[in-house]
Specification:
The protein is an alpha+beta fold. The chain has 3 helices and 3 strands; from the N terminus they run ααββαβ. The longest helix is centred in the N-terminal third of the chain and has 52 residues.
Amino acid sequence: MRLAFTIIELIFVIVILGVLAAIAIPKMATTRNDALASTIAFNLSDCIQFSGSSFITNSIFDITSDACISASITNLCFTITPNNVNDTLLVQNVAGAAAGSVCSTAQLLTARTNISSPAGVTHQF
């Protein structure tokens, strides 16, 4: 009658847990970065909508909202240039984002939806 595990059984369990951890930890980090990139892209979209509403109401673009600050200043992923004379808002990717970084992922997301690009996307109001 056995009352405990053998050392071999314990070693196998530790090895299996180590392999699972080696696979799971990088996946969780990637998921976290993707979530942050999605948040930045959403904030940029929200910034454009808020700035456009501000322009329609007050004839001036307001890029001081939390969404604009998050997308352009806090994360340094995009530049937002208002032009109150031409009724346009130019949104460009900040150059030099490392491949696979949060900013490069956010820039890819916004390029797919034509919100921003390296050359810039002009939003007319």
